[in-house]
Each structure stands twice: as C-alpha cells, then as structure tokens.
C-alpha cells in the first residue's frame, strides 16, 4: 500500500457536479461529525481524480490518502493493518498519543482506534482508493469500521471501488455516489483544454464518439495521435481505440484471468458487440461457452461451483441463512442462471432445489440485485470488477471493460466465440442475430453469407430492432465485393441507423460505401439519408442541398420519396431562416394531389404572406391526416396547426405524432415530435407543460445525437425560464442554443434564444438591455431575426422601448404588428397590438386602449399575456394617482402571474403593489423596514448596479426624483456608498426581511 499525506497540484474536474456536491457535503459534515461516502464507477471515469479533489479541497484538518498495494492482497487483513500503521504515523506527526505496541487488536477495533488517535485534535479525511483490490478480510473490516465511524471522532471516509458489486457485502448500506460517463459538453471541454482547441472538428467529433464519455480513454486516444492526425493532415489509425489503448485504461480489471474466465468474458462481450447494452442473458453465454469447450459435458465442467436453480433462481446450500455476496478468498464470484445441460453427479436435490454434493459447501451466498453470485475457485479476485449477475443476466460494470475484453482477444478466438453464439441463437430461432454472428465469424468476402444476411435484415417479418438491422446491413456490405451491392447495403444500413436515432453512425456508413457504380435510385436514397442526418446534426444549409439532390435523383423511380426529400429540404431552409430557399424546395416537391402537396401549397402561401390562401390547404392537412399514419407524416399537421394559430390542434397533432414515433420505434422522430408539442404549449401560454416537453425532448435529442433539435429545445427552455424568473437557467439554455445555432446556421433557434434573453431582462426590470437586444431582431435590416419568429417578439420590444424612454425606436414595427394581427395566425396578437398602442399613446387615449386589450385577451387562452397587460395598466394608473383602480389591476396581474408560475413577473407586480401602498410591510427588516415602498424599489435597483438614470427609466420617474429618494435612503440606513447599500439589500433578500 502506497501512502501519502500530501496532495498534488490542483487539477480541474470536468462535470461531476453531483459527485462534487456529495463530497462537499461530507467535508462540511466533518466540522461536527463523522461521514462516509463510497465512490463507484468503471475504470477511467475518475474515481481517483474525485478522491484527489476531495483531498486538495479539504482545509479543515488532516488528510490520509491510501491506494491498494497488490502485494498485500494475498495476506488476510494485511491491507487494514497497513492503514492502521499509516494512521498511527499521522497521529505521531501531530503529537497525538499512540497506544503502546503489543498484540494486534482485532482489525475493526484496531482501525477505529488508529483513526481516533489521528483525529484526536482535528478532523481527519481518509481517502481509500481501489478498495476492491484489498483482501476480503480487510474489505470486511473497512466496511464494519465505516458503520461505526461515529465512535472514533470527526473522521471522513471516502472509499473508491471499481464497481459497487465488487464489495457489495462489505460496503452494503453505506452512502454511494456513482460516476457515469461525461456529458458531451464536458468531454468536449476536456478535449479542448488538453489540446488547446486545435483539433480538426471532424477528428474532434470522432474522438468524443470513440471515448463514449470516459475521460481516461479520451486522454489515451489523444496521446495516441500525433499533431498531423489531430489536425486531419494524416488519416486516423483504425481502429481508433485499439486493444492496447482499451486495456491500458481498463487496468487491473482484466489481468490474470484463467482461460475459462477469459472465455466467459469474451463470450459475454461478443454477444453484446456493437450494442449499447452492458448486460446479456447468462444462459445464452453459458451455452455458448459450452460449445467452445466440447470436452466439457456439463456446466459443472465449465464452472465447477456453479449451482442449480431453486425456487426460480440459483442458490447454494448452506447451514445458515445466506449473506450478501462478496469475493471469495482465492476465487471469484460469478453469476449464473439455470444450467443449460443436465446437472452432473456433483449436484443433487435439496428441498426441491439443487445443492453442491461437496462436503464443504462454498461460502454462503445470497442475492445481488435480484440474482445470485457463485464462486469459481482458481479464478482471479479482480473479475467481479468486470462482470456480475442481476436477474439472470451477466452485466459488465461498463462499456469500456466490455470493449477491452473483446478487442484484446485473438481474432481466431473471437471468430470461434461468434460461431458458438450463432449455433445457440439459431437453435433458439433467433434468425437475424444468429446470421449476424455467423457473418462476424467469417473473414474475407462472402457473397452468399452477405446476401442471406441482407435478406433477413430487410424482411419485416423477422423481428429485430432498427439498430440490429443496421448492423446486419453494414456487415453484409463488408462481406460484399461488388461495388453496387456494397453501396446498396451501406445505404440500407444508414437508413436503419438513422431511424434508430444514430445520425453520426449513418453518416459514417455512407462515407464507407463508395457510390461510383451505384444506380441513381441508390444514390438518391443515400443523399436522402445524408440530408436527414445533417438536418438533425449538421449545418442545415448542407442538409438542404443534399435533400434537393436526393429529390432530383429519386423523382423518376420513387416520386413519394422525392416529395419527402423536397419537403424536408424546405424544413431545413425554414430552420435557416432562408425564405427564398424554402420556396425553391417547395417547388421541387411537385404538385401531386395529396396531403403532402396540400402541405406544400399552404407553406408556400405562408412564405408569400398570403394567409388567406394558406388557411384552406393547411386546415385540410390538419383534418385529413390519418390517425394511424407514419410518424413523419403525422408531424405535418402539427406544423400546419402552428402556422394556423390553432394551438389546441397543434397539441393534439404533436401528441399523436409522439405516440406514433414511440410505437414504431422511430427514435429519431421522438425529439422532433416533442419539439412541436413544446412550441404549441408555449404559444398557448402553458409554459410549465412546454418546459416538461422540452426537457423530455432535450434528453431524447442528446441521446440520439440530434444537436440541432437539442438547440430548439434549449431555446424553448430558455423562453419558459424567462417567464418563471430563473436567470441562471435562462443564461445556460440561451448559451447552449446559440452555441449550436451559430455553428449550424439555425436562425430560428437563435432568434428564439435572443428573445428569451431579452424577456428575462424585461422581467428583471431592465428595459434598456431588453430593447438593445431585441431591436436588431425586429427592425428591418440584415440582422433581423427569423421570418416566422421576429413578429412574436415585437410586443416585448415595444414594451422595452417604451419603458426605456425610447418610443421612437418602435416606428415601423407597430405597423408590421398590425398586419400580423389581422392575419389571424396568432390568437394573442390583437390584444398585444392594443397593449403596444396603449404604451405609446397619449394619456387621453391610453386608458381606452388598455381596456380594449383586456377585452381582446378574453378571446385568447393564456394567463401570462393577460397578466402582463394588467401589470402595465396598473403601472399606468398608479402614475396618474388612480390608486384604487391600480390596486385592482395589479392584484389581478399578480393572481395571473402566480397562476402560470411567472415568478419574476409576480415579484415585479408585488413591488408595484408596495409602491402603491397596497402591500403590507414585512416585519423584522431592521433599518430597511423604515424605507417607503418607492425608496425600497430604488434601493433594489441600485443594489443591482443600475445608475440613477437607469433607475429612472425602469421606474418611469425623473432622474431628479431618483436622486432625491436615494439621498434619503442613505440617510435612513446610515450607509455611505452604493456598495454598503448593496450588501444590506442582499442580506435582507436572503433572510426574507424586506419592507
């Protein structure tokens, strides 16, 4: 065991917010009490880095950091006594009294005593890394001591294990925080930091895909590549993550395995090849292993101590009750389901189950996550870190270990394993998986195998998920020597990969095809897949061109597919905010008399500003689309209803498309259906529902690699947060949306994000910032926002400009808003138009306009816009000293904002009520309670950093009035600077002690 009491220089942790908070809570608790935390995760995810981070950041006492020494694992209790000696050394360095030498106490008592001595006068943080590599007795003692740690003083114990299953019995019941793969953004930040951001974008994406969020693997891949490869001057090595790289990150998890254990792991890994899963049916694996070892007549010969099934699950006979499983001395715990062959004579019946016939049964075993564990004598202890059993399935601790197992095996042994799996799967009637494993067992061109595999993958009667069909078509392409057939197989594989929600995989399959000799129909399908993939995750201008090319190639042989390609090209142009390109794509869609053409007619009329011509065809699209249609076709009524302003129909259509996408297993369409649902709920004023759909859609988009769709969901979430008043949330989602929008040309998502940021400014009482942000988006010019969105933001801009004292900036846009309101495409627009006119009108006209706006709100759903009108009307009435009427309007506004969850707007309304004298003063506010409502509002604005001129614009008063009140605020509070005032206001808001 290597022991250190000092730590290395600080290193940044990427992501890991949840884990860092758990560690911070443990360190905070050490001030008064003991605390324990187990940190788990597969190799490479950063267990050691997290423990080092804890040691670096702990400044409240001493740190004792230990790592497992493999040499000590062979001696019972050696590791725990080594930790005792290290703790005694720390105690001696601090001058604490250390017990006299003598016979060693029992390990748990000895460890608690040693830690107590080291923590006698100050808290002690103990970081035990790789505890799964300790000997079994030491692990048991460590777990027992952890449960009694409160008796030893203020001691924090951080225990790192490669997988909780590795020490499940010993550490059961202790608090656990698990490490998972990094999110793409965090992994990207790590890559950019270590390379200086100079990696070619395509290489960067491939590195991130290959690393799968494992930071150690990502760093190993970067170290493997030279500068020319990182900058794409030279091609990348294939495979990018080779056996040496994977095994180097996996570390000790795969070392020292017996041949039988190696075959078991390799078979489990081969059964999961190219899958996202980490678990596989244990019965399938054991039967395939039996085929690998034909001299073994029974499972007993393969896994000597695997026992049979009792009461529906495996068990081992023992005299006492079973305990939770754990590693056996000199052996290894495996999991198994019922033996696939007749049991050997070594097993016999016991109470209706089966038991070992040995005189000394194995260590008592018990369930683990719904399964059972079994000992395999002679196998290494490290294997439980790699695989376990739950519910009759072998489960790897993570994808890295599974990949390392497969990559590290000799090619001939891998092919033998695939042949064994093919025989077992064929016997079970699983045709496509059996053929695929047979194909993986084949090397070199095999046209007959390829043809049979392609037929099975294309047969709808063969049950299989889309990702498996993609794998089958892709392997068929690899076994095909004919160029045209290879291109057709690659295209079919890419289509299935795209439907499975894997656009990057689809693009890689297309890049490997080579379409020089392929017929036009195959090239057209390939361009359609390429365009769709780029629409999900790439520059939308590139997607549009690929889709238009697909439409031209497919028109002679597949006119329906050609129409789909052209309409999707129009969708890409719409996202890019290019109305001309959108019209060009719609012209390419053709004019056949079907719903697709009706959709095209309606879209064309909308782009030409002819809503009178658009309404009829778009209504037919909404009304006539079959309920049980294809998911892609069901998305069109949702778009049509949004264009018509019929939010109820848009919600129904979006929900129907979502249900169809899930029922058909179309993972790629789920995020888009949720996008339209979120937009519909947002336009209807149901912001909480919009947020729910957008959160689900964002997760689905990230899971399926759809960054463009994710950007739209980020924009919706920013808009929802701008209403709810979560400033940091708005900023986070705006930043995420704009990051992708700028790279991929998503003008629609960018416009929505800027609108959200401006509305958040307006809600926080910053009209000047809101007007500056929105002005370029809504006024004519090259910076104007998306043609379908900027008009929705005009009411915000008019309000911001009016409150900022810049009404002249609104010239021109109000006329555009009037035209928009007259078209009937936005139910809120007429009321918003009247409100905007009231904001800019002279006093003798404003009153009637506000009342007209409130009357119009009665014809449209949505509490938020009505409450905004009530708030502005109440402000207007208060400035004219019509206080009773102002209280009524402001009270109605507050109720509306509370009802729809618009927190920041509700707080703004409460401040208006206080200024109106209608809100009771708080108690316990100290000197602040002596401020008048107007003085309190000015103090809040100043505390936020506003100048006197900005405060005057925000509160619609003169600068002289602000100067006067601010002098009185300073005198009442006894402060001499704005900094002191800000501190007082901040403290009052934290405690809730406000006037």
TrEMBL record:
Alphabetized UniProt keyword annotations: DNA-binding
Keyword check for Transmembrane: no
Region ranges (Disordered): 296-363
A Pfam family per the record: AAA_16
Skewed-composition ranges (Low complexity): 317-331
Residues of the HTH luxR-type domain: 924-989
Cleavable signal peptide: none
Protein name: AAA family ATPase
